[in-house]
Amino acid sequence: MATLKLPVEVQKELKKVSKVAGYLWQREWAERNAGNISMNLTSFFTKEEVQAAAGEQIPFDFPKGAAGFVIYITGTGCYLRDLVDSLDKVSCILYINEEATAYSIIWGGNRENFGPTCELISHTSIHLFNSINHPENLAVVHTHPLELICMSHHELFDNEEELNRQIWMMCPEVKVFVPKGIHCTPYALSSTADLAKVTIEAFKTRNVSLWEKHGATATAPDVEKAWDFLDVANKGAKLLMMCWAAGFKPAGLSNEQLVELEQFT
Q1: Beta strand 182-185 with 208-211: parallel, antiparallel or unpaired?
Q2: What is the rounded distance in angstroms from the CA atom of residue 210 to the CA atom of residue 229?
Q3: Same fold? 8-140, 145-264
Q4: Is 162 a catalytic residue?
Q5: Is residue 34's pLDDT more than 70?
Q6: Neighbouring-strand partners of residue 211
Q7: Angle at the Cα of 161 (from 195 to 172), degrees rounded to 5?
Q8: What is the tally of helices (H) and strands (E) in the chain?
Q9: Residue 3 has pLDDT above 70, yes or no
Q10: Which has the closest alpha carbon to 142: 260, 235, 265, 21?
């Protein structure tokens, strides 16, 4: 069993994971084993620490640039609601070997037949992208926000600029707190390199990647900030759909008013 000692800073980040997982469950965004969370913890440990804790190596074909990464990640088949009080059983910290050909679990995973989420390739690829382009972004949260998923089935999904404009004009907070907006990420099969590729494309321009007919993903410096991107974006989608359901087209903010809001972003 892994015995890695967790620095106080890492313990604080994992408490945020537990808190956000509770939010996701309460919002009905994490049914059964839906969703996954990860953090790039490489900077919190020395190479000597993680190599000393490394045990069995489990083969996995990682992107070569991810060699040596230390990643916190939730487990496959695990329920996010259990992160609230069983963090070490339903998630783990893993160390990717120096050849990027295998990983070792160095903390957590304390349940029978534990393995990291099947979205491991997507999370690792995003963390590699962030390490090069946005090193401040250490967290990745994938979940199933109800109204955003509905929007991914709507014809607006085929017009990303208009989808964002309508959500922004419906809810000024989205323009302020999700200033880059939502990426309409084309469908790709879960747990594949194709899904990782289209998600990285999304984060080149947007704050939120809306996976077509699946869910949404955000990356940020910590899990609370990633949650905020998703929470605020979904509020805009929910308000828009409420107006449609009530049978009217919302007036919304004008383009001039949206431009005026940009001073706050």
Answers
A1: parallel
A2: 12
A3: yes
A4: no
A5: yes
A6: 185, 215
A7: 105
A8: 10, 9
A9: no
A10: 21
CA distance 148 to 10: 31
Reading the block at residue 5, the tokens are: 């000692």
Above pLDDT 90, what percent of the chain?
A: 92
Q: Is the pLDDT of residue 1 over 50?
A: no
To the nearest 10°, report the CA torsion of 42, 134, 158, 231. Answer: 70
Amino acid 191: pLDDT: 82
| Partners of residue 75 on adjacent β-strands | 116
Q: What is the pLDDT of residues 61-111, one digit of tens each?
A: 999 999 999 999 999 999 999 999 999 999 999 999 999 999 999 999 999
Domain ranges of the chain: 8-140, 145-264
CA torsion 6→9→15→18, rounded to 10°?
-70
Q: Are 55 and 2 in contact (CB under 8 A)?
A: yes
CATH number, domain 145-264, options 3.10.50.40, 3.90.550.10, 3.40.225.10, 1.10.8.280: 3.40.225.10
Enter the DSSP assignment of 75: B
- For 197-241, give the secondary structure using H, E and C: HHHHHHHCCCCEEEECCCEEEEEECCHHHHHHHHHHHHHHHHHHH
Coil, strand or helix at 106: strand
**Of the residues 48, 98, 119, 173, which is catalytic?**
119
The predicted model gives 123-150 an average pLDDT of 98
pTM: 0.95
**According to the CATH classification, is domain 8-140 in 3.40.225.10?**
yes
What are the CA-CA distances from residue 212 to residues 25, 79, 89, 209, 225 (Å)?
A: 21, 22, 31, 9, 23
